[in-house]
C-alpha cells in the first residue's frame, strides 16, 4: 500500500519576542505558525495514535520553541523542524512556516514569512 497522509496545524498564533532589533525583543509580536507533515499510512483502518502524528505534540513542540527568544525566525523554524524530525522519524516530509504580523517597515504589508521543508 502506498498511501500518504498529511497531518498538521495551520494558523497557530503565538505572541513572542523574536526579532533582530532590540525593540522587537522588548515589545514582542504576533506570529502565525503552520506545521504540515506527511508520511506513509502504516496500516489500513488502524485506530491507534502511536501509528500517526499527534498534533497536540506538534503544538507543544512549536510552543516550546516560540518561547525561546531568537533574533531570526529561521532559527525558530529550524528548531521546530529538527525536534519534530527527531520525535517522529517515520515522517517523509515536514514543512514549517512562520509569519510575523507586524513589521518594522514603511508600507502596507500583511506579514513576513520564513518557510523550511524537510524531505527524507
UniProtKB/TrEMBL annotation:
The keyword Lyase applies. Gene3D superfamilies: 3.30.1130.10. GO terms for molecular function: dihydroneopterin aldolase activity. It holds the Pfam family FolB. One of its GO terms (cellular component) is cytoplasm. GO terms for biological process: folic acid biosynthetic process; tetrahydrofolate biosynthetic process. InterPro entries: Dihydroneopterin_aldolase (IPR006156), FolB_dom (IPR006157), GTP-CH-I_C/QueF (IPR043133). SUPFAM superfamilies: Tetrahydrobiopterin biosynthesis enzymes-like. It is an enzyme of class 4 (lyase). Residues 7-118 form the Dihydroneopterin aldolase/epimerase domain. Pathway: Cofactor biosynthesis; tetrahydrofolate biosynthesis; 2-amino-4-hydroxy-6-hydroxymethyl-7,8-dihydropteridine diphosphate from 7,8-dihydroneopterin triphosphate: step 3/4. Keywords: Folate biosynthesis, Lyase. It comes from the Bacteria. Its EC number is 4.1.2.25. It catalyses: 7,8-dihydroneopterin = 6-hydroxymethyl-7,8-dihydropterin + glycolaldehyde. The keyword Ribosomal protein does not apply. Belongs to the DHNA family. Catalyzes the conversion of 7,8-dihydroneopterin to 6-hydroxymethyl-7,8-dihydropterin. This is 7,8-dihydroneopterin aldolase. It comes from Arcticibacter tournemirensis.
